Amino acid sequence: MRNIIFIITTFFSWVSLLNAQKSNLALSAPTVDEYFGIKVNDEYRNLEDLKDPKVISWMKSQADYTNSILNQIPKKNYYVEKRLEFDKRKLFSISNVRITSNDKYFYLKKNANEKISKVYYRKGLKGEEKLLYDPSSNNSDSKHEYIVSLISPSWDGSKLAISLTEKGKELSEIHIMDVEKQYIYPQTITNASPSNIGGVRWLEDNSGFFYIQYPINDIKSNDYAKNTKSVLYKIGDSPTVINDVFSNKNNPSLNIGEASFPAVLAFNPNDKYYLGILVDSEDYRRTFIIDKKDLLQGKKNWKQLYDKKEKVYYIYVVNNTLYFLSGYNSPNLKLCKTDLTNPNFVNPEILVAEKGDEVITQYVMTKDGIYYTTTKNGVEAKLYLYKNGKSNLIKLPYVSGSITLQSKGNNFSDIWITSSGWANQEQRYNYNLTSNSFNLENLVPTIEYPEFKDIIVEETVVKAKDGVEVPLSLIYNKNLKKDGKSLVLMNGYGAFAESYSPYFSESYLLWVNQGGIVAVPHVRGGGEKGENWHTEGQKLKKPNSWNDLIACTEFLINQKYSSAKKIALLGSSAGGILMGRAMTERPDLFGAVIIESGVLNTLRNEAGGTRSTSIQEYGSINNIEEFKGLLEMDSYQHIKKNVKYPATLIASGINDPRVATWQSSKFVAKLLANNLSNNPSLLKIDYNGGHGGGIPIVQRYSNVGDMFAFAFWQLGHPDYQPKGNNQK
C-alpha cells in the first residue's frame, strides 16, 4: 500500500511540475514592425531588454524549472560519468599543438583528473616535457575561472603568448612568457580578440606581435565587436598605449567597415611584406599589402591587393610569390600562385585545376612540394602531393573521413597528417616522402574502446524534394534491425560554407551504444559540395537547408531506420535556423528538438549578437528581397497557435557575444503560449557560459549530458523515464 501511495504521489508531483510552467508565461508586450509595407507582430519584444528585472526574473525562473525537470530524469548523469571514465582511460588529452622551425613543441594538456588544460612544451618530440603555465595557479582571483584559448610561440620559441578567456565570453587577455626562464612579464594585454579571429602574429625578431583589439569589452553593448583594430605590441611596453597599425580609424582611405576584423598576417620571419585581411563571415576577403619596413616605421601606405570578387582564399606567401586557392570560375577551388610584384588573380598560374566532385580543402608548403587535401561530399578525404608540375595521390594508412595537415613551412620536409572518421580515432602521422611511409606520432597513447567495436558507418545520399542529392552520414550498430523503432539523433548545421566533416565523437558513439542511430545530413548551406552548395542554402535559398533535412528524415522513416516521433533534432548557432524551421515546418516528424545558442529570431538578429557580420550569410532587413528571406527563416515568427509541437530544450549561455540569449528566451516564451501539446518546452540558461565553447570540460560534458538525457526521455528510452511518467 505504501508503494502504491508513493507512486501516485510521484506521478502527481511530476504532473504538477509540468503544469506549473503553464502558469508562468512570460509577460507579452507586443511590438508591430513594418518592413516594406509588411506588418510583423513581435509578441515578446520586451524580452530583449536584459536590464529589465522582470525579464531576468522570468528567465531565471524558467532556468530553475528546467533544471528541476532534468534532475528527475533517471540516468541523467550517465553521459558525464562515461565521458569522465573515458578521460581517465585516456590518462590525458593534448590539443593546440604548435611546432617551431627549431623543433620546439608547445601544446595544451589536460590530465584525467583536471578540469582545465595547462600549457606544456618540449625540445623535440622526444625531449623532456615541461609545464609552462597553469591558468588556475596563475590566477589569484578565485571568482574568475579562465581557460587557455590560444598559445602562440614566437618564431624561435623563446617567447610564448598565452591567451585566456573567462566563462565563454570570447574576449581574451594575453600573458607573455619568457620560455627558458619561465618568467611571466608583468604586462597583461586585455580586450584581445577571440583566438579564432586574427590570433597573434609575431615580429621577425620576436620582440612583439600583432593582435586584434576590441575598443569595448561589454558584450551586451551595441558597439561590441565593432571598429576593432590590429595593434602592434612590443614586449615591455605599457598595454594601455595602443599602437594602431591597421584599422578604419588609422587607415580611413581603405574604407574598412565597422563589422570587419582587420588582421595582420605574416607567414615567415623573413617575409618582405605584411598582408592585412578583413575578416568576416565569408571565405573571400578584401586583402591589403604593405612593405614590412614601411609598417614598422609607422607608415600607413597599405594598398589593396585583391577584392572579394576575385575569390581568393587560403593564402600563403613565399618570398614574392602568393599561393592561394581560387574560387574564380571554379566553385570547388583550384590551387594557384601569382607574383606579388605584378599580381593577377583572375588569370593566375594554375598549379592544380578544379578536380570534378572533389573540393580542395587545405594545403601546406614544404621543401618537397605542396601537400593538399580534397573531400567528396564532405566525408571522403584524399591526400595529394603536388611536385614538379604533377599531382600524386598518396595512399593513407586507412580510409579517412577528414584530414588536417601541419608543416614547418617551405624550408623543411616535415609534414604531419592527422586523420579521423566517425568511427576511427584521430591518428597523427609524420609522413616520410623518401620511404613513402607514415610513422605514428600521436602525442597521446591510442586508447581502446571495445564497447564501440560493433559500430559501423554508412554514407549514403538522399534525394531532396527538388531532386538534388543530399549526403547523409549514418552511424549505428552493425546488428541494427530496420524495424522503425530505433531512436535517432539528427545533428546538422548547414551555414557559412562550413562542412560537417567526420570526426571521432565519443558523444555520438555513446548514443549509438544505447540503441540509437546518429544521422548527420549534409544539407545545403554548408561547404560539403563546394561553393554552390553553400549559396544554394543561403539567404533567399535558405529553405533548401531545412527541406534537405526533412527529406533525410522521411528517408529514415521510409527505409524503416526509425519512425516519426522517434527522431530528435540537435543543432547549435546557425544550425538553430535549420532545426527551428524543420520543427515549425513539420512538427509531426520529430519527438524532440534541442537547440543550443541558436539563431531563432533572424528578423531581429541584427539587434544583438554578431549583428552586421551575419548579414552576409542571412541577409539584411534593409533589403526587401533579403527581408523576405529573413522572415521565412525566422523560427520564432513561424510558431503558430494551437499546433502540437514536439518537446523542446532550448539552451543558451548568458555571456554569448554572437547570438543574443534573448533569441532563445523569446522562442520558448512564444512556444509556451501557443503549443497545443503537453510536451515540455524548456529554457536552459548557462550563467557561466557563452557560445558553447570557452568553458571547463566538465561543464561542457554536463551540458551535453542534459541534452542527451532529455532526448532519450522524450523519444521513449525506457532507462530515461521519470517515475510516474507515461513512456512515449
UniProtKB/TrEMBL annotation:
Domain Peptidase S9 prolyl oligopeptidase catalytic: 504-716
Reaction equations catalysed: Hydrolysis of Pro-|-Xaa >> Ala-|-Xaa in oligopeptides
Protein's UniProt name: prolyl oligopeptidase
Peptidase S9A N-terminal domain ranges (all copies): 30-437
Lineage: Bacteria, Pseudomonadati, Bacteroidota, Flavobacteriia, Flavobacteriales
Highest taxon of source: Bacteria
Keyword Transferase in annotation: no
Protein's GO biological process: proteolysis
Pfam families named in the record: Peptidase_S9 (PF00326), Peptidase_S9_N (PF02897)
EC primary class: hydrolase
Keywords, ordered alphabetically: Hydrolase, Protease, Serine protease
GO cellular component: cytosol
Native source organism of the sequence: Elizabethkingia anophelis
Matching SUPFAM superfamilies: alpha/beta-Hydrolases, Peptidase/esterase 'gauge' domain
Enzyme Commission code(s) on record: 3.4.21.26
GO molecular function: oligopeptidase activity; serine-type endopeptidase activity
